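Annex B, item 7. Sequence and structure tokens for protein A, then protein B.
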Amino acid sequence: MTEQIKKYKFKESLSSEFEIIDLASTFSKFNKIMTKPHRALFYTIIYIESGNGVQYIDFEPVNIIDNSIIFIPKDAVTVYDKNCNYKGFSILFTESFFCNEINDIVLLKNCIPFNDIYKRKQIILKDRTNLIYEFLKIMKLIFQEDSDSKLDQILRSTLRGFILYSEKIMKESDHIDLAYDENIQIINSFRSLIENKYKNEKNVNRYVERLNVNEKKLSRTTKTLLGKTPKEMIDERVILEAKRLLTYSDNSVKEIGFELGFDEPTNFIKFFKRKVLVSPLEFKQKNMK
């Protein structure tokens, strides 16, 4: 089987796993890489000073808009628009850089900018006096200094402040209510389990056992916050990976079905057609890259 979704690790030559790169020059230099589907094994924050076009993050279109910020979670499949005009910069960082303690891990996994529970990947800024610009300016200035442990600590704290303030903007602009702290924790734990187990485990009961939560409680929580059943969440993750593999790999429908944990190709075909309304082969042919 030939996997065509390229995976890119963080640049090993840097002393810290944090980098700020100019968007226009990077896009010009690595156009062939960026305009093909790829997974970055790190987090990306893109500040668009000006530009136009559309890029895709896991099949979701994101418009390139002046004075906007785009958040791309680790492992998302991204495709940049060949005809895009970018001016701005990207902030790249890893969990290893950001997460010094358990609270940092919780923040990164649960925050709105990188958590697709809310299907929100972008902030559009109307006012250049917004505090968000100060965070960006400070990070750029610190990054230009020679890296050492103290500067990394300051940079990490500034990045944390930037993410928290971005979350505040998103909450206010979209009227997101985060009052269900316990419920959100349940959903994030459930989603983490799905991410690790979806290929081989599609039965809700097995997830309930691992979460140590009542099935009715889990169902009530997902329906209240997301409007979905637990089973729908599992199926959505399977479908997303199926779409990725059908679109961006040379694998046959049969091979993809086996990779996603289906014992028989016919079971995968029936499942996919029930969810997407076309067969896997029809979807592959329609989306061939």
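Protein B:
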Amino acid sequence: MSHPYTHLEPTQFWRTGVAQMDALDICGLWQPKFPIAPTTRICTAGSCFAQHFSRALRQRGYQWCNFEPAPAFMDQDLAAAYNYGVFSFRTGNIYTPKMLRQWLEWAFGVAPAPREIWQLGDGLYDPFRPAIEPDGFASPAEIGLSREVTLAAIRDAVRQSDVFVFTMGLTESWAHRASGVEYAICPGTAAGQFDPAAHVFVNHPYPDLLEDMNAALAILHLENPKLKVLLTVSPVPLTATASGAHVLTATSLSKSILRAVAAAVCAGREDVDYFPSFEIITSPVYGGRFFAPNMRQVLPAGVDHVMACFFKDQAAAFGGEQAHDVAPTPQNSQPIPAEIDEAQEELICEEAILSAFAPKNAQGNT
């Protein structure tokens, strides 16, 4: 007797595809829709995990593109501290589809960028990228000029890239109550002052996230019809949650919704794909081996395995040799930043600032 399960591949059964395999030998998790070659012009944006992705591409000689390079006088460490070379443009982390949509609407004139400014001590901060200037800006005019440079870099990235990689990280955010504009982090944490009358917590539901992601994709493809988009979901758990739930269940909810949004926007489209870095890092099959002791940060071995799967699946789909750990830094890329320790790497992620507000007896492995 024949039925739909008779002729399935071994990878489509848990026993043969997972249980009987060594976890590190599990393959074919991704069937890529389009090729990404060393000559492909790639830009990256999104949450903290996207930084691992761009570094891995550069280390293997792929053409990761930096459209907002650091001034020539800055060394690598200083450039990284000022958020140069972290993403393809100097927005800092973009955690949600709503934030991506905002930046694209501002860059392409769909909506005006807000003029709100935060203050901390003598420094002035951009509420939508508060971590890019460690000591703040000197004046509102300086914030405006800096943001215009970034918006121009976004326009160049969208129009000149072949592949736009976006890593979704969160559903939770803080917004301006009246306008709905979303901040990079809760006011009063990195800078500014929290005002419950002006600021509101938002935990985006699936329909809103889907609408925002589709709106962002529409802008990307309007400006560059040939642009391919590769989505990922960050495997990094939430640092903290303002939802009232336990942070573990809040993380599960957030990541599940983002994963569902990714599946929905990819369905039936050849120009939008999803790469399962989230599943590779977080699946119980791997026994948590890819996480640091704090069970939040992803170890280099985890990033290496994710990228090995990426290149292996690309080679299986489109032929060619798998990438090796090489070398040449593309002409339009920043030099690869020096290795940074756990504390320094956390500082690049705005959301990680929230760990400083945990009760002293709960900070342990934050």
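Comment on protein B: The longest helix spans residues 140-160.
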